[in-house]
Amino acid sequence: MSSYFITGANRGLGLALTSHLAQLPASQVSTIFAGTRAPSASGDLQKLIDSSGGRVVHTSVAITDRASIDKAVLEVDARLEGRGLDVLINNAGAMHWVPEGGIAKMDNLREAFEINVQAVQNTTAAFIPLLRKGSLKKVVNISTTLGSIAQSHKYMWGSAPAYKITKAALNMLTVQYALEYEKEGFIIFAVSPGWLKTDLGSQSADLNVEVGARAVVDIILNSTSKDVGAFRNILVPGWEKTDGPNQYDGVNPPW
Fold it and tell me: What Pfam families does the entry give (predicted)?
């Protein structure tokens, strides 16, 4: 019976991850803490909470506010009644576009770092003591192949340089945590969930969000010590060798 904390759980991938985990047997997933900024859950999340039999628990957290994160940790700790948290999924993020003028006109890098990197640092650091008491000790950072330096030429069409830069930084942050906490039995890695039809990804994206969520959960459930510090790509049958920039073949993307 594993417990999960998911940031950005009120919509998009975060909501889909919460929903998919809640469909698994209670003997496999006991509690899902759905972290959102709003003091009350969104409509879709609230419906999921109401139908979960107490397994999905809303937790208010503003990931850019360390005091709010610390308060969320205390709430989760109290709810777990002495048990540790098993899995932290750092899902919340933001994509900042530069519609005209290219990278020289980028004026949102600081904000992007605060959300996509600093918030993950603060959330992970705050939850480490609770994860240390858990049985799985997994931290999963939702990244993207747009943060791959080796593949950057493939994504020049996407005018979101701050997003790409900060996700590359997130990948390095992931590796630093993985290397430091591996000796304590932690399994810390990054996952690219694919280009998904969400508010962030747009309706022009490759995959329905439920497909990406299911593939990410499969990776989390089957992850082992061999995944420490890895950058994982999802596996979606039929997308292994498609034309275009994105292939979902389950092979680790290059950094």
Answer: adh_short
Does any domain span residue 247? no
In a domain, 98, yes or no: yes
The token duo for 81 is: 């009644």
| Range from 2-11, 58-67, 157-166 carrying the lowest mean pLDDT | 157-166
CATH of the domain at 124: 3.40.50.720
Residue 37 falls within a domain, yes or no?
Answer: yes
Residue linked to tokens 């010590």: 225
- Nearest-angstrom CA–CA distance, 116 and 8: 12
Lay out the sheet containing 56-60: strands in order across. Answer: 56-60, 29-36, 2-7, 87-90, 138-142, 187-192, 231-233
Give the number of domains in the chain.
1
User: How far is the C-alpha of 76 from the C-alpha of 92, rounded, in Å?
Assistant: 18
Q: Could you tell me the pLDDT band of residue 133, with boundaries at 50, 70 and 90?
A: very high
